[in-house]
Design goal:
- The complex is a heterodimer of chains A (about 400) and B (about 220).
- Chain A is α/β, with parallel strands linked by helices.
- Chain A has 11 helices and 12 strands.
- In chain A, strand 9, helix 2 (about 175-185) and strand 10 (about 195) form a beta-alpha-beta unit.
- Chain B is an alpha/beta fold.
- The chains are: A alpha/beta (about 400), B alpha/beta (about 220).
- The interface between A and B is medium-sized, with 35 and 33 residues.
Chain lengths: ~400, ~220
């Protein structure tokens, strides 16, 4: 008791500085078809057959307990990491900063699964898919789906992949909503949940932005009541929707840093209504590049799924929603995120702690707004890696 | 908003690190094996890591400083970023075996409320703080007329996170008044290498740091 020994400091493990690349990746698909495969949706409607596009990175170990499911946000897809290796100036997957050998979601250790969620337009069955009954795209005939339905479909994918339990489910924004729903719907399958920059329910302000985005699409004459061919999309409406979205993903600080009030080419005022400011040019660029890779009807449905997500309404109280959960949670928010503000994350933390769950929470300093969870340059990676290490140790002991 | 905490922002915690770690051995000795431990103001998680290694505890930490929280999490600890007092409101009575308040009590706006809450959620509370009636402090005030800056109070009056002062006698009096059971008292002062030396007699005069182990109810 009286003898005092100075201990050496325990320092965090330092990851190897050299980051290796993933092997070229490819998107695969699975079709859930036949008796017993009909999907019963929360809206009361059914869907059959259902195709799911997915990618996996790393290997499932013998104990089949190292799988990490990655859930993407509104405009994401199954391509979360690595390169297809087809083009020279190809962009990597949307969460390449996090996934790969030696990275926080270390593919040397974990088997990472990412799928395009139900109702997406990047390979999984959604409003832009061909309706087998008519031979034409579903369009507005596609049934409404919810975050809970997305999770049901991911559950089937895991069964198909032979993954009985997940070491962790991780995702940001709408992906974070799926994480929460996973922990609630399948508590026996989830060993750790990492909801990032997300909420148990959107604020009316966020719903309002979604509605303006939908109105932008639906007021484009090319939308034509949802009946259009994919090469004649309502481009102006969808581009406008994305521009509105992008304003909400950034922060005032981020815009100030990125663009200030700079003019395009430094030319000054043109005294006409074409693009004068760099920030305008940026929004137009985001809008037009989005149109090339996304589907307007899908945007309408996904934003609706986000609006409808409300754990408090679904379970009476937020803490009741989590009362059946068993796994540790890591909640992450970003200081400048005003679309999914830190306050909403703290609400989650509070509810999770009230039911006695093991919760970690970090409000990461960033001026990048909601988009921060997709960007490098802050400590999200370290924090996630530490949490996964801990989960692995807990599983082993 | 959490950012509007009463403690001074941008405190250089590295300055108080030797003091903050000085009692770790004693704290660990007062924590049972496999206990459920809540460390309030856990900093970068040094104590929790040691408790995990030596006592196999189920650890939880609370810390306000975002950098420190990120460090804790990257070290695989379960920590939430929150205001200490606010964080206790979500917890059930007796949710923890041990609650640690290591050198944080004097930096809070409502220390009595914090202690009461800690004793509600924890069966045992370990509190440490610098003793303001330590003889060197007394003599510095008496002879130099200046507020002390030393290894146990390593800040100037204008940048100190401590907004309260306490003494061993004060704390004993409070425990008596509130009928808190003092399971153990430990007193030390720091030598030139910042190593703690136990103090047995006249702690109010001779100890620079105090550690109390409290439980609810009377003796």
């Amino acid at each position: 008791m009286t003898q005092i020994v100075k201990r050496p400091e325990t320092l965090p493990e330092i990851r190897p500085p050299k980051i290796r690349r993933l092997e070229p990746v490819r998107t695969q698909t699975v079709i859930f078809e036949g008796p017993g495969e009909t999907l019963h949706l929360e809206s009361g409607q059914t869907l059959h057959p259902v195709t799911v596009a997915y990618e996996t990175y790393g290997r499932l170990n013998e104990g089949r307990d190292n799988a990490v499911l990655v859930c993407h946000a509104l405009s994401g897809d199954a391509h979360a990491a690595g390169y297809y290796g087809l083009e020279k100036d190809e962009k990597p997957g949307w969460w390449d900063v996090l996934i790969g050998p030696g990275k926080p979601l270390d593919t040397d250790k974990y088997f990472v699964i990412s799928s395009n969620f139900l109702g997406g337009c990047k390979g999984s069955t959604g409003p832009s898919s061909i309706n087998p009954a008519t031979g034409k795209p579903y369009g507005l005939d596609f049934p409404f789906y919810t975050v809970k339905d997305m999770v049901q479909v991911q559950r089937r994918l895991l069964k198909h992949l032979g993954v009985p339990r997940l070491l962790a489910v991780i995702g940001g924004s709408l992906g974070g909503m799926q994480v929460l729903q996973w922990a609630i719907s399948f508590p026996e399958m989830v060993r750790g949940a990492i909801p990032i920059a997300t909420t148990a329910r959107l604020s009316p302000q966020a719903i309002a932005f979604n509605e303006v985005a939908r109105q932008a699409i639906m007021s484009d004459p090319d939308w034509n009541g949802g009946d259009y061919t994919l090469d004649a999309q309502p481009e102006r409406g969808l581009g406008l929707a994305r521009m509105i979205g992008h304003i909400t993903y950034l922060s005032e600080q981020a815009m100030l840093h990125k663009f200030s009030r700079r003019f395009i080419n430094g030319q000054g005022r043109s005294f006409c209504l074409t693009k004068d400011f760099q920030v305008e040019s940026y929004l137009h660029h985001q809008g037009s590049s989005f149109v090339r890779r996304f589907d307007a009807n899908t945007y309408l449905y996904i934003t609706r799924a986000m609006d409808y997500f409300d754990l408090e309404a679904a379970y009476g109280r937020l803490s009741t929603a989590f009362s059946g959960c068993r796994c540790p949670f890591l909640v992450v928010s970003f200081t400048s995120d005003w679309l999914f503000p830190p306050e909403q994350s703290r609400e989650l933390v509070q509810a999770l702690r009230r039911v006695g769950l093991d919760v970690s929470y970090c409000n990461i300093e960033s001026d990048q707004g909601h988009d921060a969870f997709l960007l490098p340059g802050h400590r999200m990676g370290d924090v996630v890696a530490g949490f996964l290490d801990r989960l692995t140790r807990m599983t082993a002991s | 908003m959490i950012a509007h905490c009463v403690t001074a922002q941008q405190v250089d915690w590295s300055r108080s690190r030797p003091r903050d770690r000085a009692l770790d051995t004693f704290i660990v000795s007062l924590v049972p094996q496999r206990a459920k431990v809540l460390d309030l103001g856990c900093g970068n998680g040094d104590l929790l890591l040691r408790l995990k290694a030596d006592r196999k505890v189920e650890e939880r930490g609370v810390e306000l400083e975002p950098g420190a929280v990120a460090e804790c999490l990257s070290r695989g600890l379960s920590v939430i970023q929150a205001d200490l007092e606010a964080s206790l409101a979500d917890l059930r009575e007796g949710a923890f075996d041990v609650v640690v308040l290591n050198q944080v009590l004097l930096a809070t706006a409502r220390p009595l409320h914090l202690l009461t809450e800690a004793l509600r959620v924890g069966r045992r509370v370990l509190v440490s703080f610098p003793n303001f009636t330590y003889w060197r402090i007394r003599s510095q005030i008496v002879f130099k007329g200046r507020l002390p800056v030393n290894p146990t109070l390593p800040y100037q009056w204008y940048d100190t996170p401590n907004i309260r002062l306490a003494t061993v006698k004060d704390f004993r009096a409070l425990c008596q008044e509130k009928h808190w059971q003092v399971i153990k008292e430990l007193f030390v002062n720091l030598d030139r290498q910042d190593l703690p030396r136990p103090v047995r007699f006249w702690p109010n005069m001779r100890a620079s740091l105090a550690l109390f182990a409290l439980e609810r109810g009377t003796r």
